[in-house]
Amino acid sequence: MARLVKLTEKGPYKLEVNGETYYICQCGLSNKKPFCDGSHKRTRDEEDGKLYIYDENSRVEIKL
After folding, report:
1. The pTM is what?
2. Is 30 within 8 Å of 37 (Cβ atoms)?
3. Considering all CA atoms of the chain, what is the largest pairwise distance in Å, rounded to the nearest integer?
4. 1: exposed, middle or buried (C-beta count within 10 Å: 0-12, 13-18, 19+)?
5. CA 44 – CA 36 distance, rounded (Å)
6. Contact, 39 vs 31, CB < 8 A?
């Protein structure tokens, strides 16, 4: 069953373990989950309070 998950973070979570730095995806768009691949850059101009769906090449605003 499909489900819609709303992610509100627009950047990765920085995690340091044993002197190594990792960036964990919080936007849900990374192709390397759980790690960040920079895909969050696509969310920079999202307007607060609006809902969007992303595919590989575009973003669509969902009207509620």
Report:
1. 0.78
2. yes
3. 45
4. exposed
5. 15
6. yes
